[in-house]
Amino acid sequence: xxxxxxxxxxxxxxxxxxxIDTVQTYDSILPGAFEKQAKKFSEEGLPKTxxxxxxxxxxxxxxxxxxxxxxxxTLYLTAVYLLEVYQRQGYGKKIINTIEKEAYKExxxxxxxxxxxxxxxxxxxxEKNGFYVIExxxxxxxxxxDSRMAKYFLPSTILMGKMLKCFGE
Length: 169
Prior knowledge:
Radius of gyration: 15 Å
Protein name: GCN5-related N-acetyltransferase
Helix content: 25-40%
Domain N-acetyltransferase: 13-165
InterPro entries: Acyl_CoA_acyltransferase (IPR016181), GNAT_dom (IPR000182), N-term/lysine_N-AcTrnsfr (IPR051556)
Organism: Alkaliphilus metalliredigens (strain QYMF)
Largest sheet: 7 strands, mixed
Keywords: Acyltransferase, Transferase
Low-confidence stretches: none
């Protein structure tokens, strides 16, 4: 069963490892971004502006997620990254389901995320998991959730989201 546990500062090297492992996937559209983030994790530790969860299967670390609550009803998913060896095995869907169930228990009604407009594989993945495009225009993305998205906006991204529905107990 997939578990997401709060990251500790000692996880910073694992976070860095996941970022380095992701370079090949994203380097053509975000050159240098994941090397930079890997260095930041290993040197500075956990981010201050959002929470990180370590994705585990039993005691095996598969990857990490990042998230922050924008308001009482909206969770912004800042990151979902798996080590390459665990990609395309159904873990992504299980991670999204786990996040949604936990968020729903906390009163969250919607999950939103930014995805690079050229990361068609990521857009396809989120669409297959029930997410839809909310906005493509930079100014409107920044205004989302009473402008709380402005500090998280990244160039060339689109805002996607999903309304959460009741989960069986």
